[in-house]
Design goal:
With 214 residues, the chain is mainly alpha-helical.
Length: 214
Amino acid sequence: QTCALPIFVDAVTRVTAGEPVSAEGKAAYRELGARLLPVLRREPETSLLAAAAGAAGGLTDEQIISNAAVLLFGGIETTEGMIANALFHLFSNPEVLDKVKADDALIPKVVEESLRMEPAASVIDRYTTRDVQLGEANILEGELVRVSLVGANRDPAIFPNPDQFDPSRPNLLSHVTWAQGPHVCLGLHLARLEAQQSLKILLSKLLDLRLVDE
């Protein structure tokens, strides 16, 4: 399924822009469904998907597979990006890197500051449920609104010197990388843990790891 991930990413991006689902996207989705259907038929205790199918309270196979596709898209590509970004920020700031090597308890703060500066999803899409005025903009019901998480996370009124990588900020958890409210990221705790453990292992095992100048 991970081989289909770039196709999913491209298809979702194009659909958001108003284009139809590509033939490649449809084929990748059909392949995902074919692979997951046997999983849905297993005993509920064997996996989360099997549990959803066995005790879903009316969810259809199609609905479960659709949600699995969302988790595939949101749980792999974005996590890869956040780990790579955190490594880049660390190795671009040698003083911070030295502190982290001396005390890996600082890694969670590094991850949060990296998430603030470079969200794995820099822009999110929302559709208005009613007419609303935001500042001087009149937004009609049903319109697409593109929200810049990067812009919000670099608001100087909230984060002084917003372009500076500073894991010692007192309000690290004020960033909106995970979104908020009913749209908050379902896997935020797992993603944080994956990034923290990845950095801890990489820094302890790959002692010569560094950025290539080019």
